[in-house]
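User: Okay, second chain of the day. Same drill as before: sequence in, structure tokens out.
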Amino acid sequence: MSKQMTFTLACAVVLSALVPGLAGFFSARLEAIESAERNLRALETRLHVRQARDARPVSFPAPCLRTPTTPRFQQVPATALGEQEEDKVWVRDVPAWLSGLLAEVADVGGSGPLDVR
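Assistant: Same drill. Structure tokens below.
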């Protein structure tokens, strides 16, 4: 056999093993890509279904009304509450720094049950 014939046969043997191997590799890669694409589409569909099920209307069918104003705090005189001497006992036990703060609050808000002067 000549060198050229030996080379040709060697190339034919290598190519006969290489071509089917590459074809199998690329077809497997293509199948993996298609499978991933199918899984992605299925997940997107499940997500869209879940979002559609949980969706709530953004606005209500009735028009918005103004909220009524909240009633203001009304100060009731301490005598109307039936203030007695034993109710004032806790004021004597207040530390000095807190009694000063209570006095400032009473000055700002008017005299009331917290007047410690």
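The chain has three helices and no strands.

User: Thanks, on to the next one.
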